[in-house]
C-alpha cells in the first residue's frame, strides 16, 4: 500500500482535484442522509443520489491512481 502514497503526488492536478471533489461530494451525500431525519424534504433520496454520483465520478481518478 506504500506505493499508492508514493504515486499520489506524481499524479496530475486534474486527478488529485477529482479525488478531492468526489470525497467532498460523498461527505455532502452522507450529510444529506443524516439530515434525512428532518421530514421536510426527501433527504434520503438526495443523499443516496449524491453519494452514487460521487462514486461514479471517483472511478477515473481511482483507476489512474491504482493502475500500474
Q: Could you give a short account of the major beta sheet?
A: none
Task: List low-confidence stretches.
Answer: none
Q: Kindly state the number of beta strands.
A: 0
The total number of structural domains is 1
Radius of gyration: 15 Å
Classify the helix fraction into a percent range. Answer: over 70%
Secondary-structure-based class equals mainly alpha
The N- to C-terminal Cα distance equals 13 Å
Question: What are the secondary-structure elements, in order, as H or E?
Answer: HHH
How many DSSP helices? 3
Amount of beta strand: under 5%
| CA-based shape | elongated
Which whole number gives the mean pLDDT? 76
How would you portray this structure in words?
The protein is built from 3 helices and no strands. It has 68 residues and is mainly alpha-helical. The chain has one domain. It is elongated.
Task: Give the helices and strands, then pairings.
Elements: H1 2-7, H2 13-34, H3 43-66
Helix pairs in contact: 2-3
Which structural traits does this protein have?
68 residues; elongated; single chain; mainly alpha
Amino acid at each position: 500500500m506504500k506505493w499508492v502514497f508514493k504515486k499520489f503526488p506524481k499524479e496530475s492536478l486534474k486527478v488529485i482535484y477529482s479525488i478531492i471533489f468526489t470525497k467532498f461530494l460523498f461527505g455532502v451525500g452522507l450529510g444529506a442522509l443524516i439530515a434525512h431525519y428532518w421530514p421536510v424534504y426527501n433527504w434520503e433520496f438526495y443523499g443516496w443520489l449524491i453519494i452514487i454520483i460521487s462514486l461514479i465520478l471517483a472511478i477515473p481518478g481511482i483507476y489512474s491512481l491504482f493502475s500500474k
